[in-house]
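Record type: monomer structure entry
Structure origin: computed from sequence
Chain ID: A
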Amino acid sequence: MKLKSFFHLAGFGIKTILFKKKDPILGTIIVTDKCNLHCKHCSVNNITAIIHPYEQIKKEMKELYDMGIRILFFCGGETFLWHDKDKTLRDLVIEAKEMGFLIVNVVTNGTHRIDLKEADLILLSLDGDKEHHNIIRGDTYDTIMNNIENATSDNICFYMAINQINKDCIKDVCQKAKDTKNVRAVSFNFHTPYPDTKDLALSKEEKKKCTDDIIEMMKKGAPIFNLKSAFPYLVENKFPTPCHQCVVLENGKLSTCGRCIEIPGLCNECGYFFVAEYTLLFKGNLKIIFEMLRTYLKYI
């Protein structure tokens, strides 16, 4: 992370904690909900299958920047499907950097060629070993591994949603992140149970077993982009929600924290590790503050 970015984000954090501010710092733009996969745990793909136009996304970037947001994510659907005439995802990332965003990340399912060195992180969904990943996402594991092998930069971070299907694959994914060229780290979430995917949710006991597995792999040197101090809060679902420092913008609609905020009761079952980490950070939790500094400086 560049020193300019570090000092800006540190200053934002200090002001937020001291003055109990609710201004956002992290924004996500949904460039499309069109996706080439139909994953078992996903409730937000191909609802409209619209690819939003470049000028609209550029306007949304400006809107987020003017709100004070400096960490930007591009999400889908599948982000690498996005295009508008001669514009591609690379143009969006470059535009965001030129606009002044300090960190620009992209989320992808990894089934397309990975040539995006301009992004700070490419969060690539890998949901287990080959067998369990393919159960969830279809026969894509080998394609993804080939694309990672041939990626043009080492800015990839595995992104695993832990559910009933893959809950015993955490160590496999950690080891794969440690051993695979071009992969910097792995980041975990628990499955957030939308109404149509409740059967994939984990019990409190299962979540505890999962965090124990993650901690074991941390001790073995696996590159894990999560904060151990937040795990007890995630297991118990006892962290503040929603996260006011994060917003999502989709087709002109701005949502605090995420797209799931309007679903009654879902915040109480939130499985997003970053929500726990950010809300605890901005509440002034000292363990989280020091652990986040160490982790972000290492992997971004």
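Annotation 1: The chain has ten helices and ten strands.
Annotation 2: The chain has one domain: 25-299.
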